[in-house]
UniProtKB/TrEMBL annotation:
It comes from the Eukaryota. It comes from Hucho hucho (huchen). Keywords: Metal-binding, Zinc, Zinc-finger. One of its GO terms (molecular function) is zinc ion binding. This is Zinc finger, MYND-type containing 12. Residues 35-72 form the MYND-type domain.
Length: 375
């Protein structure tokens, strides 16, 4: 590990984590520190920021992996006592700085939680999602619509962990907040219905899930358009429900829509790409990269296991994964899926993607094991 920890007891002093015991005499009379994750009485503190506390080493390590490593230093000015300023202008300036840092913290924690969710790391996503909710409450108040994205992250994590009652509680809170906020954005509404669809899928209410995913697509298309990478996430989830219903033709049609949307988007990125001048982060964030990888891999797996394999569709999805790998700085991934795409394209006479696939393979081979584009 990259950090050193001394425990509250001598017997744990060998544990390599970034902690020290809290000195009770350093706290104001009657003040007690709470654990960052469970809000129980804390006995340990982070020795780097010294403003974050934990009940035990297990929660410290969970928080470090989940979010704290990325935001440790950002917490210091936010959680440190406000210095005295005699002038009102100085006090206003300090408050504006703190607000800016809090908003930054909300965005970082949301992005980290979402990326972990797309990667299937549901337990790891919880600290970031919880932090996002607490910060949003501090900035916007306990009933603001700005809390909804954090509720949805927590709901998605709990669906993934099988804690459906907890997920339902978070979604009820999000749904109530949206209902009493008529000016709520289309983005928040599509995210709400997407997560309700996930919950209904997990409880095997498949018709209810399809209804929510249809609403998800509607609101997303109103905000982003039909042929958009955000909107097609709803199509992908609908397709998975139709697979559960053994309606493979409908699922295949929706998968085709998803694959075509991502292929078109990645092709445009590749066409404007020049070495060293662009990364995927300029076009979409890490969470969207993880979402694309998860969706495309899942579709390819389903298609390859289908008795009615469509070589042209396999080539399209594999080529998309190859472009995603190349633009993300992974030439090995580009070569792996590029070869799969080429093999599938060769089964289709005069396939239009054969030449672009071959060009990408050449670029990936030239890039080799030392990519110049950071992921």
């Amino acid at each position: 590990m990259y950090y050193i920890m001394s425990s509250i007891t001598r017997s744990k002093s060998h544990i390599s984590v970034l902690m020290s015991a809290i000195n009770p005499l350093a706290n104001p009379r009657g003040a007690k520190k709470q654990c960052e994750l469970c809000q129980n009485l804390a006995y340990l503190q982070c020795i780097k920021c010294r403003v974050t506390f934990y009940c035990d080493t297990e929660h410290q390590q969970a928080d470090w992996v989940g979010i704290h490593e990325k935001i440790c230093q950002l917490l210091i000015p936010i959680r440190t006592a406000t210095p005295f300023h005699s002038l009102q202008t100085d006090r206003d300036h300090h408050r504006a700085q703190i607000l800016h840092r809090q908003e930054e913290l909300i965005e970082i924690s949301r992005a980290v939680a979402q990326k972990k969710l797309f990667e299937g790391k549901y337990q790891e996503s919880l600290p970031a999602a919880q932090l996002s909710l607490r910060c949003a409450m501090d900035v916007y108040g306990p009933s603001a619509v700005q809390l909804v994205p954090a509720y949805l992250l927590l709901a998605e994590a709990n669906v993934g962990l099988g804690s459906l009652a907890q997920a339902e509680g978070y979604l009820s809170q999000a749904e109530w907040t949206v209902m009493k906020t008529p000016e709520c954005s289309q983005t928040v509404r599509h995210q709400l219905h997407r997560n309700l669809g996930r919950l209904y899928t997990a409880t095997e209410n498949l018709e209810g899930a399809l209804l929510h995913f249809a609403n998800d697509v509607y609101y997303a298309s109103e905000e982003y358009g039909l042929d958009n990478i955000v909107t097609c996430g709803g199509y992908f989830l609908m397709a998975n429900v139709f697979i559960k219903q053994e309606k493979m033709d409908i699922a295949s049609s929706l998968y085709t829509e998803v694959a075509s949307t991502w292929h078109s988007h990645l092709t445009k990125l590749l066409e404007t790409h020049t070495p060293g001048s662009m990364t995927l982060e300029h076009s979409f964030d890490e969470a969207q990269q993880a979402e694309a990888d998860q969706m495309l891999r899942a579709m390819l797996k389903v298609q390859e296991s289908s008795p009615k394999q469509a070589a042209a569709q396999n080539a399209l999805v594999a080529h998309s994964l190859a472009m995603l790998g190349f633009l993300g700085g992974s030439p090995d991934k580009a070569l792996e899926f590029g070869r799969k795409a080429l093999q599938s394209s060769q089964l289709v006479p005069d396939h239009s993607l054969r030449e672009p696939i071959q060009s990408l393979l050449q670029l990936a081979a030239e890039r080799g094991p030392h990519p110049t584009i950071a992921s």
